[in-house]
Amino acid sequence: MPYAAKTRVPAERTRAEIEELVRRHGATSFASAWDDTSRRAQIEFVISNRRIRFGMQMPEEQHAQQLRSRWRSLMLAIRAKLESVKTGIESFDEAFLAHVVMKDGRTFGEITLKQLEFAEERE
Q1: Is 82 helix (H, G, I), strand (E, B) or coil?
Q2: Which helix (H) or strand (E) holds 41?
């Protein structure tokens, strides 16, 4: 069963909670977007002089429960990373590296995952 499979918290409220969470941890900007065509949603914020982007696939159909669950899962992931940084388990860059937005607009994860795939193909 997915995390928060039975949550009743609306997706929009969770998005607002994420915004407040990153603000409390020093974010200086926050944005969210969605695209019905690609079925993707994303949030982006600036914190510790890094632009961070999280994207997620939306349910194939307009399934409100799955949508609520995914937003709660995203909040859990971000909260866990921030807590890990706060307690010194890892640095901010270590925790968020895959989500750092580079100058060309891609995340570090998007860039390196392609390189990893290429390296695996060559083996």
Answers
A1: helix
A2: strand 40-47
Distance (Å, whole) CA 100 – CA 115: 16
Q: Where are the domains of the chain?
A: 11-122
Which residues does 91 contact at the CB level (< 8 Å), separation at least 6? 85
Residue 16 and residue 79: Cα distance in Å, rounded?
Answer: 13
Q: Is 70 exposed, middle or buried (0-12, 13-18, 19+ CB in 10 A)?
A: buried
* pLDDT score of 120: 65
> Residue 67 corresponds to which amino acid?
L
3: left (phi over 0), alpha (psi -120 to 50) or beta: beta
Report d(CA 48, CA 27) in Å as an integer. Answer: 7
pTM equals 0.88
